[in-house]
Every structure is written in C-alpha cells, then in structure tokens.
Design a protein that fits this description.
The complex is a heterodimer. Chain A is an all-alpha fold. Chain A folds into 2 domains: 15-310, ABC transporter involved in vitamin B12 uptake, BtuC (Orthogonal Bundle), CATH 1.10.3470; 318-358. In chain A, 73% of the residues lie in helices and 2% in strands. Chain A has a two-stranded antiparallel sheet. In chain A, strand 1 and strand 2 form a beta hairpin. In chain A, helix 2 crosses helix 13 and helix 12 (267-277) packs across helix 13 (289-308). Chain A is globular, with a radius of gyration of 22 Å. Chain A starts with a helix and ends with a helix. By secondary structure, chain B is mainly alpha-helical. Helices cover 70% and strands 6% of the residues of chain B. In chain B, helix 1 (14-36) runs parallel beside helix 12 (293-312), helix 3 packs antiparallel against helix 4 and helix 3 crosses helix 10. Chain B is globular and about 65 Å long. Classes of the chains: A mainly alpha, B mainly alpha. At the A-B interface, helix 6, helix 12, helix 14 and helix 15 of A face helix 5, helix 11 and helix 13 of B.
Chain lengths: 358, 349
C-alpha cells in the first residue's frame, strides 16, 4: 500500500471515527446490560408471514425514515451551508397529497398507488424548489427560508385533507410499512438501501458530489470554474424532496393513517443531529453520506436503549440530550486537537523509552 | 451597523432601513385593523393586551437577537421557559420558606439561576469548545424539555397566595381606559410582565449601542477574523452573548408564569421559532453583525397583531393563523433580501 493511498484512507476514515466509537460504546453498553439485547428471533405476524423480530431489527427498521431524510439533509447542508427545518412539515404535505389522490381515485391498486406517489413527489419537489429558490436566488439563510414552511406546512397539509385524519388500509401499504409476504425483513430497510443506492449511483456516474462540495466550500470560486451554484443548490433541494416523499410514504404505511400533526414530527431536528453526529460540517462543504446514515442509526439505537431501560417516552429527550452533548464534545475541534497532541506526546515518549531500553 | 456620530448625515444603514420598514408595516397594519375591524382595535387596551400576552416572547426575542447579532443561534429558549415555569411552580407550591413572601424572590432567583445555568453550558460549548451553535442549543432544548417532564408530566398549578396576588396585580391607567356599556370607566391595564419586557428592551438597546460588550458583539458577528485582529476577546464575547440570552430566557420563564400561573410541559412550544421570526422581521440578519432590539420589539408586535386580526376575523382557526403568519414571514424575508440586494447594487455603482 503506497503512503499516499494510506494517508487518503486515513483522512476518509477520520471523519467516521467519532460516530463509530459512539456506536461501539452503545453496542457494548447494551451487551453488558443485557446479553440477549441483540438476539434475533423469528415470529409469525397477524397475516401469517414469518418475520424477523428483535431489538436490532426494530432499531434498523424504525430508523428508516430518519436515515432517508438525513441523506437528503446532508446534501442540502453541504451545498447551502445551512439546514432545512421544514422537512417534517413538507413530509406531512406530501402525505396529504398522496392520501387525497388515492381517495379521489377511489381506492388503492398498483395503478392509483403509482400515480398518487408520483404526484406526491412532484408536489413535494415544488415545495422544496420554493425553499431552494429562496436560498439560492434570494440568498436567504436556509434555516430562515425554510422557517416559513416549518411554521405553516402542517396547516397546509390539514387544509388539503379537509380537517380530517384519513385511514388507509391496503395490502400494498402493509407491504411497504411492514413486510412483503415471503420476505422476513421489514420493507423500510430495503427503502433505505434503495435510496442510498440511488444516490450512490448518481454520485458515481455524475460529478454532482464534487460540484456540491465545491459550491459549499466556496461559492464564488465554484462559479468562476463554470459551476452554476443556483442549479446545484436547487438540485440538492430536489433530491431532499424525493427523500422526504419516500420517508412520508413509509410513515403513512406504517400506521395505515395520515395524521398531519404526528407524521414525521420533530424529524428535522433529529435529521440535523444525524448529519452533525456523522461528522459533517454544518457550515457546508465536504460531506459523507455514510456518516449521516450512521448518525441516524446511533440516534435510534440510543432511543431504543433508553426505552429498554424503562425510561418513559416523555423523559427520553433529557437523556438523549446528555449523550448528544457528550458526542459533540468528543467530536469538537478543540478536544480533537488536544487528544492528538496527547497521543503524539505519548508516542514520542514511548519511542524514547524504547530507544533507551534498546 | 448603526451609524456613529460622524456619519449622522449619511443615509440609513441596512439595519435601520429594515427596522423602519417593519415599524412602517406595523403602523399600516394596525391602522388598517382600526379602520376595517374597528371594535377592540380602537381601544388603547388592545395594544396593552398584545403586550401582556406576548411579554415573554418580547424577552426571548431580545435574547435571540443578541445571539444572532453575534453570529450564533439559540433555539433552547422555549424549552428553558417551560423548565423554569415548571421548576418555579413546584418550588412555590412547596412548604417552609417557599410559602412565605420570600418564596417569590427565591423563585425569581431560581428562574434566573436556571437560565444562567443553560447559558453557561451552551456558551462554554459554543465559544470555548467551538461546537456548532445550532446543535448545542438543540441539545439544550431537548435537555430543558426532558427535564420539564422529569419534574412533572402533569400540569402544576401555582397555589402560592402571594404569587397569585402578583399575577392579578396590574398597573391601571385611567385616562387610557374606555367607558363600558353600563357607564363604568374601565382603566387600561398593564401587567407587571409587560413592564419587565419593556425594561429588558431598553436595557438591551443600551447594552448593544453604548456598552463595550455590545459593540464587541457586533464586531464578532460582522467578521470574526477582523474582531480577533482588533484585539477583541472573541471567545469571551461569544460566551457572554450566550450567558445573557440564557439569563433572559430564565427571566422570560418567570414572566410567563406571572401571565399564566401554571407549569406545563407543553408551554411555549415552538416559541423559539416565533422569536427567530420576530428578530428577522425586525431586521436582524442570521449571518450576524446586523440587528436591533427595537426592530425585534416591532417584529413581535407584527406577529401578535396578525394573530389578533385573524382571531377576530371569520377565519378564526389555528391553521389559518399559522398559514397567515407563514405567508407574512415569507413576504418579509423576500422584501429584506430584495431591499438589501438593491442597495448593494446601488452602492457598487
């Protein structure tokens, strides 16, 4: 292995060190607390299908929406240097459009499902383009620009659905929210894989990843090099829109109903947290999708661990906050510098001792 | 940045322009409400009602304005309000010294202490450990909300008699009152919280405009690197801005309790976003270095007036209110951006 390659690998991995350590500590903690915590069993659900059960499966399953939105959030963060806080509200709008279309077409089958989903995605992209235009053309801080939809998005969803919380039951939705008959793994996990694969393919075969990073690092320089920052920023919002729509579909399918107040509620905060825990700079520039996905699973594992420790759901926030503070302190530049300095000192003194002995 | 003595004759600065726009819009909106809605808007009491209901919002908006001028953000203010309310309510219901008149003073100290504690924690993390302010204050929000429910999941009503007297106490101004249908003169009433809020606005205005710390905060938000070169202790200035904002949010919690004497886990939900919106409408830029608490005050008044107008109109539903304030916010944000970019072009020529 050449030295240059090794160095590159190290720098690639260094961003993931903190989240990986955090994940390892969480896993270790759970194993010590309850050795059977990660046991996976097989059970038969109400429909007579064999499905995998266990804490590990439920963690990966219930983090799906968060992981999908965190991926989109990473792109917006990287390109615009700010976060979109309207994802939960826009997710509710997307769900409202989806349910409204299904109701208008009179029931769910493969055809109406596809049409409704497509329309929901298109509407979501339109809303995201509104955000994106404010950010890129009018040069408004992303958080402020998305504050508008954050404060009124759920009201729009409510208005679309005519003051109701509609119920939906269909084998198609069960297949998306729970499991497909014959496959024991919950479907949302496949949705995460699908979205992740799609983004990975886009990044593999286009230069969007590079362009996004250069716009995030220095917009003026990117423009002088022939990249149109406005298009790149809008594109990041479009991709986020698709992610939000998919997450909203999973959320509706899980419950079989649309509640504009609770669908994807507070997910924007968790998504931003996932991006930050994944070692991405919230000020834009370089990004790592894998870090954000890891962050999402860390957050979910933390929540599940706290539930398993009999912490009541309303109190979880306080403990979560403490763990988050510890993680960000460990990842802070000042602490990193101190630790590296200490490590170097230890190594050099170790080398000196070895020399003396040798 | 606001003009100094030798620039008195120059045109308005960006912040002053944005502030003027927001004051103008508030005046126009209130005038329109007076003409078209009549009724309550013709009474002086209406303005005092707006102030009484939103005194806590004015205080946390000032808290946010200061942090935002310094280039940071603090979204924990709403959580701190709910935690302070709950802690003070439980404390005031206690026995011993808490049940006497001294209890109120101690409760106020407790509120300020909680706010100061959050300010210390977040200020240290942001300025000395250089962690992103959004994440730090998000964790602060989670912590405060979680601690509130750990204290009590159910609402706690204050039973302290002295405190309830304080809640009822109002400053009455007879000559601003109106004559009710039965011929009695009903004086205009101002709650103590409103007076506190106005004092906070004035104090913060003086702090930002005339004290060294205030000028340092502007310098820090305008350009961190230049501030450092000028010999300003950047870290300490940043730390103090969070300290002040924490202290103010604790105070806002106490004022909230004086308005509605009960601790409740869902109190002041999303008020941090209202406070950010008010600061923005008042002409504070999230990028830092530009802003003014007087503008923020009018930002709160604009949001409050919109809500009042919708509440009195036939469209009285919470979702209409939210949509209207969202639309208004959008209008302001775009207006700001257009005005600023237009001026930018002019000065370049």
């Amino acid at each position: 292995m050449s030295n240059g390659f090794k160095k590159k690998m190290m720098s690639e991995l260094s961003q993931l060190v903190i989240p990986l350590i955090a994940l390892a500590i969480l896993i270790l903690f759970n194993l010590i607390r309850d050795p059977g915590f990660f046991g996976i069993g097989v059970a038969v659900n109400n429909d007579g299908n064999r499905v995998l059960t266990g804490n590990l499966i439920s963690i990966i399953d219930s983090a799906s929406e968060l992981a999908i939105i965190a991926m989109g959030m990473t792109l917006v963060t990287a390109a615009c240097g700010g976060q979109d806080i309207s994802v939960g509200a826009v997710g509710a709008i997307s769900g409202a459009v989806f349910v409204k279309m299904i109701q208008a077409m009179g029931g769910i089958n493969a055809g109406t499902f596809a049409v409704a989903l497509l329309l929901a995605i298109v509407v979501t992209i339109c809303f995201k383009l509104f955000n994106g235009t404010l950010v890129s053309v009018f040069r408004i801080q992303p958080m402020i620009a998305t504050l508008i939809l954050y404060s009124c998005g759920r009201s729009i969803a409510y208005w679309i659905n005519g003051d109701a919380t509609p119920q939906l039951t269909s084998p198609i939705l069960t297949a998306i929210g729970m499991t497909i008959p014959g496959i024991p793994v919950p479907t949302p996990i496949f949705c995460v894989l699908l979205v992740g694969l799609l983004l990975a393919l886009i990044f593999r075969f286009t230069n969007i990843s590079l362009y996004t990073q250069s716009v995030g690092i220095n917009q003026g320089a990117a423009r002088l090099n022939g990249i149109n920052p406005i298009v790149i920023k809008l594109l990041s919002f479009v991709l986020l829109g698709v992610c939000v729509s998919v997450a909203s579909l999973i959320g509706i399918s899980r419950l079989g109903q649309l509640n504009h107040k609770t669908l994807l509620v507070d997910i924007e905060m968790d998504a931003i947290l996932a991006v930050a825990i994944g070692g991405n700079n919230l000020g834009g520039g370089k990004f790592k999708l894998s870090g954000s996905i890891l962050g999402a699973y860390i957050i979910q594992m933390l929540t599940t661990t706290l539930y398993a420790m009999k912490v009541s759901p309303v109190n979880v926030k306080a403990y979560k906050a403490i763990v988050i503070i510890i993680i960000v302190i460990a990842g802070s530049p000042v602490v990193k510098e101190k630790v590296t300095a200490l490590w170097k000192k230890l190594r050099s003194s170790g080398a000196a001792i070895r020399k003396e002995v040798g | 940045m606001s003009g100094k003595n030798n620039r008195r004759r120059e045109p308005l600065t960006d912040a002053q322009l944005l502030m003027t726009i927001s004051i103008g819009i508030f005046a126009a909106m209130y005038l329109a409400a007076m003409i078209f809605m009549g009724g309550g808007f013709l009474k002086a009491q209406q303005i005092f009602d707006l102030l009484n209901d939103n005194s806590y919002l004015i205080i946390i908006s000032c808290a946010l304005t200061i942090v935002m001028i310094g280039g940071g953000i603090n979204i924990s203010v709403g959580g701190v309000i709910s935690f302070t309310c709950m802690a003070c309510a439980i404390f005031l219901n206690g026995t011993g010294i808490a049940s006497g008149p001294m209890g109120i003073v101690l409760a106020l100290l407790l509120a300020l202490g909680i706010g100061l504690g959050f300010g210390l924690l977040m200020g240290f993390l942001v300025s000395y450990l250089q962690i992103q302010p959004f994440i730090v204050s998000l964790a602060g929000m989670f912590l405060a909300r979680g601690l509130t429910t750990i204290l009590s999941v159910n609402p706690v009503k204050v039973a302290h008699e002295g405190f309830l007297e304080l809640v009822k106490a109002k400053i009455k101004i007879p000559w601003l009152g109106y004559v009710a249908q039965n011929g009695n003169l009903i004086p205009a009433k101002i709650e103590i919280g409103t007076v506190v809020a106005i004092c906070v606005v004035i104090l913060m205005f003086v702090l930002l405009r005339h004290l060294r710390l205030g000028r340092n905060i502007y310098a820090l938000g305008g350009n961190r690197q230049s501030a450092l070169m000028l010999g300003i202790n950047v870290k300490r200035t940043c730390f103090y801005s969070y300290l002040i904002s924490g202290l103010l949010s604790g105070l806002a919690g106490f004022v909230f309790l004086m308005h509605k004497p009960a601790g409740n886990a869902s109190v002041a939900m999303r008020s941090e976003m209202d406070a950010i919106a008010a600061s923005i409408i008042g002409g504070t830029l999230l990028t830092g270095g530009v802003g003014n608490v007087i503008g923020t005050f009018f930002g709160v008044m604009i949001l409050a007036t919109i809500q009042k107008i919708i509440a009195l109109s036939p469209l009285n539903a919470s979702w209409w209110q939210e949509m209207a304030s969202g639309a208004m916010l959008g209008f302001f944000i775009i207006l700001q951006s257009v005005v600023l970019s237009h001026r930018g072009r002019k000065t370049k020529k």
